Amino acid sequence: MTTVRIIGAPTDYGANRRGVDMGPSAIRYAGLSDQLSRAGVEPVDGGDLAVPRAEERDPDHETLPSGTAKFLRETAEVCTRLGDDVADSLAAGETPLVLGGDHSVAIGTLSGAAREADLGAIWFDAHADLNTPETSPSGNVHGMPLAAALGYGPFAEMDWAHAPRFRAENLVLVGLRSVDPAERELIAGRGISAYTMSDIDDRGITTVVEEAIETATDGVDGLHVSLDLDWLDPTEAPGVGTPVRGGVTYREAHSAMEQVADAGVRSMELVEVNPTLDSHNETAELATELAASAFGKTVL
Length: 300
Ligand SMILES: NC(=[NH2+])NCCC[C@H](N)C(=O)O
Ligand SMILES: [Mn+2]
Ligand SMILES: [Mn+2]
Hints:
By secondary structure, this protein is an alpha/beta fold. It has ten helices and eight strands. The protein starts with a strand and ends in a 6-residue tail after the last helix.
């Protein structure tokens, strides 16, 4: 039986809205372990990483040659420990499931998951998360994890940020509807596969995800699934810090997760659940249900 190790990373260093640090707690409370058991995997809860409160830290203390990346030192510190935990879990034959926290935790997940294996990733998100400190409109690192993992801009000099065996050719973005100009250039310039919401409108979720899996898994050892809950429409997932209208439906989201379950998930993360903006914990609940689908839960 597959063992899924739950690793909480309760940070909100990477987001401008406080509250996403309560994500792991809300997701557990929504019944994650039960859902995973029903999916036929064995959940093991590794608890939360210790994360110092943002109020005790200075967001701007890191001086970069150019650009802004708030709480970069704290992010580096958490992601270094998270990367080690993810790598250890994989080495023990488990499937790590990281609970954010904001999406900057993906820097840690990817660096750990791509340490001993060639990794492909599908990024289910309204956003591209490909900004660098120079191009970011916000200075928020949750908009930068993919640029960090791929070593773009000043991240090239930061060892902790690298995902050593993860290449842009095996990255696929699905569900885009809010992309910054520099991110658009990177997608075109580096040949990153990307599907917008219009692609999903035109071709349907099944075809899009089928192609995404094919590209992400081509020639690699395993698949990472990064699920930013703002991928879904805000009517389904109100508890997120950067909602964008026009996202996927509840059913499309499940269908996509069922497809990745068939492909096989080597590591996964659930990020950007913000309980302070949620309605009766429904976004956290949705996150648990989608994780169960991604690990093979079926009706019959
Ligand atoms: N993981 C997220 N929710 N990212 C939102 C990023 C928003 C915007 N593109 C930025 O870089 O600031
Ligand atoms: Mn997003
Ligand atoms: Mn994101």
